[in-house]
Amino acid sequence: MSSRIEQLIDEIEEYIDGCKYYPLSNTKIVVNKDEIDELLRELRTKTPDEIKRYQKIISNRDAILNEARTKAEALINEATVHTNELINEHEIMQQAYAQANEIVRLATSQAQEILDNATVEANNVKSAAVQYTDESLATMENIIAHAIDSTQSNYANMINDLNQYYEVIKNNRNELHPVEEDLTEIDTAAGASAGSDLNVL
Question: For residues 46 and 4, is the Cβ–Cβ distance under 8 A?
Answer without folding.
Answer: yes
